[in-house]
Amino acid sequence: MSRTTMRAPNPGWTDPDCPVARTLDLVGDRWSLLVIRDAMDGARSFTEFQRRTGIARNILTDRLRKLTAHGLLAQRTAPSGRRQEYVLTDAGRDLFPVILTLRQWGERHAFASGETHSILVDQHGSPVPEIAPTSADGTLLDTDTTHVQKTR
C-alpha cells in the first residue's frame, strides 16, 4: 500500500517502525497470501477463492474484507453485471515479487528431491528465473551484505 493510501497509524502494529512487521500485520497469515496468490492467478469471485484454497466461508469473508479495506484488493462489478468480483490493486500487484520469492523458496526447501510440484512460467512457457537481490552495482545481496538503518 502506498503512503498516500495509508490510513492513520494502527495502534496495534506489532512493531510500528519495521516495514516487515507492518507487512506481516497486513498479509502475514496463511490465508491472506493464498488469496493474493490466487488473485494473481486469475481468481475473481468468492466461489473461485473458496474452491482454490479450501478456506472456510467465514474466514474467506474476513480475509477478503481485510484485503479490500487495506487497499490490496478492490471490488468491482463483474462483466456479467450480476456479481461483484475482486481484483488486485497496484498495492496487491506489488506483492508479486513476495509471492514469487516464497514460491521459489518453497521449491528449494519444502519438497523432497523429485517430488512433484507446480512451477511458475512466463508468457512463453519458460520457467521464471530465480530472483536474486542485487545492489546498485550488481553485487548479490544477502544477510551478510545488508543491514537495517533507521530513517529518523
Structure description:
InterPro entries: ArsR-like_HTH, HTH_HxlR, WH-like_DNA-bd_sf, WH_DNA-bd_sf. It comes from Nonomuraea polychroma. The chain is mainly α and 152 residues long. The chain has helices spanning 19-27, 30-40, 46-53, 57-69, 90-93, 96-109; strands at 73-77, 84-88. Strands 1-2 form a two-stranded antiparallel ribbon. The longest helix has 14 residues, at 96-109. The radius of gyration is 18 Å and the shape is globular. The mean pLDDT is 91.
Salient structural properties:
152 residues, mainly alpha, Arc Repressor Mutant, subunit A, two-stranded antiparallel sheet, 6 helices, globular
CATH architecture of the domain at 14-92: Orthogonal Bundle
Structural class call reads mainly alpha
Supply Rg.
Answer: 18 Å
Task: Give the full name of the CATH homologous superfamily of the domain at 14-92.
Answer: Winged helix-like DNA-binding domain superfamily/Winged helix DNA-binding domain
Helix and strand succession?
HHHHEEHH
Number of strands: 2
Coarse morphology: globular
By DSSP (H or I, 4+ residues per run), the number of helices equals 6
InterPro entries: ArsR-like_HTH, HTH_HxlR, WH-like_DNA-bd_sf, WH_DNA-bd_sf
Keywords: DNA-binding, Transcription, Transcription regulation
Protein name: HxlR family transcriptional regulator
Biased composition (Polar residues): 142-152
